[in-house]
Amino acid sequence: MSGQVDEDLRADVRLLGALLGRVLTEAGGEDLLADVERLRSLVIHAYERDSDASIEDAEALVESFTQERAEQIARAFTCYFHLSNLAEEHHRVRVLHARASLGPDADRNDSLPAALERMSEEIGRAATAERLRDLRFHPVLTAHPTEARRRAVASAIRRISDLLDQRDDLLAGSIGLVENERRLLEEIDVLWRTSPLRTTRPTPLDEVRTAMSIFDQTLFQTVPLVYRLLDDWLLGAGAGAMPASAPAFFRLGSWIAADRDGNPFVTAEVTGKAAAIASEHVLLGLEHVATRIGRTLTLDEADTPPSEALRALAAAQQELAPHVTSQIGTRAPNEPHRRVLLVIAERIAATRLAARSGADDDVRRLAYDRPAELLADLAVLQDSLRSGGAVRSAEGELQNLVWQVRTFGFHLAELEVRQHSKVHRQALENLREGGERAEMTEEVLAVFRTIASLQQRFGVEASRRYIVSFTQSSEDLANVYALAVAALGEADAPVLDVIPLFETFDDLNAATGILAEMIELPEVQARLAATGRRLEVMLGYSDSSKDVGPVSATLALYSAQSRIADWAAENDIELTLFHGRGGALGRGGGPANEAVLAQPPGSVDGRFKLTEQGEVIFAQYGDKTIAARHIEQMAAATLLASSPSNEEANRQSALDFAGVAATMDEASRHRFYELVKAEGFAPWFAQVTPMEEVGLLALGSRPARRGLSVESLEDLRAIPWVFSWTQARINLTGWFGLGSALAAVGDEQLLRDAYARWPLFTSMIDNVEMSLAKTDPRIAERYLALGDRPDLAALVQEESELTREWVRRTSGHAEILDDRPVLQRAVRLRSPYVDALSLLQLRALRSVRESGSSDPDDAAHRLLLLTVNGVAAGLQNTG
User: Which residues participate in catalysis according to the annotation?
Assistant: First the structure.
């Protein structure tokens, strides 16, 4: 079956590539396709033969193109990557379906049923079910300041994906297949003709609407399907015929239009509008589901008699809205369960409409105040169906609706506010000085009023988490509570869970001391008492990596988590660690489920929360089947992370290899500082990567820097720092310093032992392999040559070679990714095409530097942005 599935993937890529070729010929003539093919042949030959002559020929060809032709070719390769990514996503779904068709015995080790069975073997079925009740997987969607893809492009890709899905069900030679190909050509032509360039930066609300498409298309329908997996395990053959037991363990958070750290466009007004958009989407979803189920719940009361509680609910509905209930009653006179559910649907619709200005009193009266009221009505309906003998109707689609309400409420995703500690200090200083308040201070206070309004409208769960960037003392947390009181008074201040964010190396080391002081604050003590001593702490992967390099950051984060978990246990605190990960390997990226299993003992305990950004959101949640698989994998890993065997493996390996960790930490940090603390490093970095130019481009709503010049890296955001190195095909943030670290240990057998037994180290090496596979020394050399510091260029190249050598020696692989042949083949197939875009980007960069232009609308910048889109699409996990 595997061979057939792989052939299906190749057939899809060939089909889409051939159709793109037809579109290019129709749009630009045979000459355009010929130029694309000439460049493609040269870069493939250069890559496969490692030929300097071929890469130089390719570079010369790129330089010979007119500006118009260069742009056309950049767009052609970018379109190809969009189509290839789509084919690979389709392939992933095909593989998942093929595996599922083999039945439950084919479950992989990372499936939820397999995780439950393993936990049961270790701690017993009852204890596993108990832990399951406390399970929580909590992704938080965040806007991406380097998100390269327009929403119009994403929509075109989704339409092509739908056509590819349909194709699998059509017979060869059929009229339907011919029509499908015609529609594919039409949509690929639309993709080609849709400008990939934004003329203006997206606003935070644009980013909200983009995220809403993920909810509408996948998450809303997918989450209940994952809960069903749990229910099948818990109830066995009784699943669907007895009350559901699976908990609603998934929670969705969002920073989009709520994260104001360094983003002047996120205001209190914008945050309020973002909440309204999200609420509109989830209430529409709930309304449609309730209406659909209501129309099918045609159970006659003679066969399924209503309970007394249902009769009472129907009477209450009649009193609340006699006109609505009488209309529905006319259509379903002997179907009481149907009548009640259709009125519930009308009440959900009223809840949505009541939020709008101008809603009349009848609408407001019909609306639900809180999700708990809706859940109470659904519980009465389910109980009546059960008592009437229609258990399957109670536990089928209706249970899915219950799970959707429990998961998403009326707010869809909790809006989590984030602000820099410095802003709070400045606002308080302004208030204490008296006199006229600064505009910034007024905006800070307005945020707390917005949070209070959201809590009043949707409940406390809609927005209660407030994250403090660069937390360096307990005072930074106390300031938030003080500002909330200043905004609304003590009696009306919103409920807040203030979350410290530890980002730098020094702050991670100081974390437990700050937390010890934090829990002495009266406001925190009150929240601990109200929540059963629950506390959340956030860890920043991006800034810590930029601060001390990827190796030391990884080790520091592990150490901090271990110490924080021990501190929480000593203080009887139920800890949730919030991982500020990104898609790129320099920002904690890589397979998240493997990362969960490598966490320190006691640091997960059935709860895992992380940020999901940019391209990662669409990769993990853009397709229903893939989204269900991702949520299942993460839930399984979150459960297994706390298994006795996994915790013991992590505990023992951390002790056994403590000396290795210490040596690696010191050596890697020394090497990293040798580079980034070298005099003139910051301007050199801006020369050899497109960092400055990327900052000018309309990619995301948030600026790439907090305000300082290129002379300083301190104020450069970590995401553009990673993104710029990735665009230059160097990927420095994913691997730099590891070669020196491994060489400092020097004992190859010891390192291989660590790779076999130390999960954190295994994950580090595997992620670096992926990062190295996506680098290209020949292309990187050309970017490094843009600078005037051969000493720094040589340092980067030497560390790259050293890292490759020692990673191979540590893993025992003859070549990078030898143990992951599918990924290895995918990278090798993609890399030459990315090389073509990189050569075009180098041409654009040289032109920009020579002209000195900072106009983002000129021809060279336009070509640069086209290649940024393409390289991001080609390399994928760049966010």
Answer: 144, 546
